[in-house]
Amino acid sequence: MSGGATRPWVELRQVTLRYGHVQALAGVTLRIAPGERVALVGANGSGKSTLLRLLHGLVGAHAGGLQCDAALRQAMLFQRPHMLRTSAQNNVALALWLHGTRWRDARLQALAALQRVELQGVAARNARTLSAGQQQRLALARAWALRPDVLLLDEPTASLDPHAKREVEALLADFAAAAAGAAQPVTMVFSSHNLGQVKRLARRVIYMEHGRLVADLPVHDFFNGPLPEAARLFVKGELV
Ligand SMILES: Nc1ncnc2c1ncn2[C@@H]1O[C@H](COP(=O)(O)OP(=O)(O)OP(=O)(O)O)[C@@H](O)[C@H]1O
């Protein structure tokens, strides 16, 4: 399952990216088709965040080729969301307004997005006073209100307690399931250290090591089939 014959959302060829002397991505070749749900796994520093940032255009490659379908709308979520010092509702409405929605409509659509993540009760609260779990749900509402075709998530539940983790993961599963029936299903690429979450949310798993893609397999094969040694030890270490 490496993107198939359909027109890819993104295609990378031998991409290299450095931060000073640190080689964060080394010869990455990758193709992701619309509608895929891809998990990026690997040890700390293996390049997962960098790859996500590259896919979202936040950093540029130093060498290699990257082609992306610019017609598809993208949104990205981070481990710790950045909220503006205004109400939860305004945080979503401002994102919509910046994308050209009239303020009145933006406020209404924001409320609908808050309902979807069950935050309507705190719509008027300063977003920065919400709990970490509520802020991540708000970030999800803000991203989702923009109706992205592609959702990139960098360890979206890593800094949450188990309860909030389950809530956010359930929302992601819900969004993915709702989008699966849509004409254009959402493409999701997320990094995670939580292999249970990877099993539940991903269809394809990419294992990274030192900026390289060491394994790229359908989720079932990743957890049940033979793996390159490093990836096998990683999975084993996580499962004990
Ligand atoms: N802004 C930066 N400046 C310098 N080096 C960086 C920067 N961001 C990342 N790096 C380095 O690039 C490499 C890849 O980092 P990256 O954050 O992409 O890995 P990761 O797999 O997402 O790690 P983690 O699981 O800890 O989030 C690491 O060696 C990291 O120290």
3D architecture notes:
The protein is of the alpha/beta class and about 240 residues long. The protein has two domains: about 35-60 and about 70-85 and about 135-140 and about 145-240, P-loop containing nucleotide triphosphate hydrolases (Rossmann fold, 3-Layer(aba) Sandwich); about 85-130, no CATH class. It is about 40% helix and about 25% strand. The chain has eight helices and nine strands. The protein has helices at about 50-55, 90-100, 105-115, 130-145, 160-180, 195-200, 220-225, 230-240; strands spanning about 10-20, 20-30, 35-40, 65-70, 75, 150-155, 185-190, 205-210, 210-220. It has a six-stranded mixed sheet with strand order 5-6-7-3-8-9, sandwiched between helices. Helix 2 (about 90-100) runs parallel beside helix 4 and helix 3 (about 105-115) packs across helix 4. The longest helix is centred in the C-terminal third of the chain and has 19 residues, at about 160-180. The chain is globular and about 50 Å long. The two termini are about 30 Å apart. The mean pLDDT is about 90. Adenosine-5'-triphosphate (ATP) binds near residues 20, 42, 44 and 46. Adenosine-5'-triphosphate binds near residues 22, 45, 49 and 191.
